[in-house]
């Protein structure tokens, strides 16, 4: 790897103008492309202390061997040039929002002489129109079956088509009326192409003409006493209505909009986009990408916290996604021969039709969680692509805000499912445990891993969690939670002291646990409910057996505190490490430098999942304790009230606020309260 100081530009050599920069490796390949309002300010960030850089950024500057830049006239030009270079060089350290390859789609091969409709899953190909994506494969097949009732176009493979063309007789679909059988000349290729164009128009949202035509034909057939034909047309109309019902109306005003939302952690980001056209959800797409470069964040993201790098992620996505979409639409104009012929017949030039396509691809409204970075410049680029005005905004209330929240939930669920999929992979879990063993120099893979985390607010309500993973999966029946005694109540945060206390309380019977009968403990626990144990400071339930790996949430100070407890208790058979949130560094006791795992390694992913689970569990318990304290603190100072009577009061009146408004007589009606105690409670509450 190269030393960044060897290719760092001379001070003052970098201009302060807006521009685009490229990092190249030793083979002159472009590995990262970025843009900046001020090139000097942005590039100087890459040449600071390596320990202060995000791990992915650090890897990039160590891989690079040179940096170069191009000055442009405006920030809008910088956005455009950045996109162009990313498309051209495909840099390994840039986020690429490529189409999700897992969603099934309905495809129409418009590039063939006799087009066909078929189910498809995979990368987009030239000469094929795609509709969707759909949530399930059966949804595509059901839609295709309904469509062929009204638009009887070819759906067979090329080999089947050629065979029936030679035989001179149609397949079963031709006999039952779900294909107009161009293979035997029942319709001409031009007539079949017209059917295909009507289907494409219908799938693009032009449903009204089809519905009107079917209604008119059904009424004419009924008037002419052609009842069988009228019944068939009625069934066709029902099929069309069923397809249309699959796209429910979400906005009554016929809005055209795209709604975009992200969900992210420090390693990955999930993005969801809902396409709403004429007030209906016409499509949905999703990606999960690795966070790299300027879009990465080195800061730990607490639950509920806003991601500070979300505006940069959103900017990157908007430029890349819509630029790609417009390019694809323009290519389809050239490749779709039938559509081009139709355009020519209507006397519309290609440029005007391309503009119409861009307007359809990029809607008037783009609704987002937060405004993108450099929002005015992003709007300028998209307006140039669309050829019309665009409104990017954050909805605050109403139906649009509610739908955006739905998109956010989809993004969160997508990221969660992505992680669960990796966790559920036995091969990935085994590889992760093996990588952890090798990285930490353990004698065997850590089949049982325990992790602890501390949660508090400015030193109050200090609690800790202990989560257990066996074979890479959580074992919730062995979870523990602790109320910290020694480090609480001094008005300050002392994570180091809290880590020491939790470690001591967890391992004080370590040698006894080793002598326990694991089979007996496992047999007992198999019949027990997965109930979380709250450990007291004096006693606690015995663990079935000790872990091979114990993780504390924190860096070198926390690890040193836990190691001191290990030394005090004589524990030498458990590997101890700390996982620091900021840079995902693994700290080993007595080592000056941390262990850095590759960002895409299964080992790091598993360690993060364990740490995040401990953090979630600690936060949940802390909120419970804080909420309980806040509910009861007002009543704690009233003489004569024990825990049970305080609980009875709050349950009877619903809240302390309602209790303060009660009279002496109303308080006396509570079970266990006489006139004297009721008067004491009333007087005490009036003076608070």
TrEMBL record:
Entry's Gene Ontology molecular function annotations: DNA binding; excinuclease ABC activity
Annotated Gene Ontology cellular component terms: cytoplasm; excinuclease repair complex
Domain UvrC family homology region profile positions: 259-566
Superkingdom of the source species: Bacteria
Domain UVR residue range list: 208-243
Main subcellular location: cytoplasm
Subcellular localization, as worded in the UniProt entry: Cytoplasm
UniProt entry tagged with the keyword DNA-binding: no
Region: Disordered, residue numbers: 509-529
Signal peptide annotation: none
The keyword DNA repair is annotated on this UniProt entry: yes
Gene Ontology biological-process annotations: nucleotide-excision repair; SOS response
Functional note: The UvrABC repair system catalyzes the recognition and processing of DNA lesions. UvrC both incises the 5' and 3' sides of the lesion. The N-terminal half is responsible for the 3' incision and the C-terminal half is responsible for the 5' incision.
PANTHER family associated with the record: UVRABC SYSTEM PROTEIN C, UVRC/OXIDOREDUCTASE
Quaternary structure and partners: Interacts with UvrB in an incision complex.
Record-given protein name: UvrABC system protein C
Gene: uvrC
